[in-house]
Specification:
Structural class: mainly alpha
Distance between the termini: 63 Å
Radius of gyration: 20 Å
Oligomer: single chain
Shape: rod-shaped
Number of helices: 1
Number of strands: 0
């Protein structure tokens, strides 16, 4: 079995996936808050 050396693995794909996930969650949260504010203003 190969010896594991910390910091040698290429994680660019994982970093891109994580960045995309964070952007999606942030945008989704903004949309939900905007919809809640809209509903409060309309009084539905």
């Amino acid at each position: 079995m190969a010896d594991h050396k910390i910091g040698e693995m290429d994680i660019t794909v994982q970093e891109k996936t994580f960045d995309g996930f964070i952007k999606m969650v942030t945008r989704g949260t903004i949309v939900i808050i905007a919809l809640l504010i809209l509903l409060a203003l309309i009084g539905a």
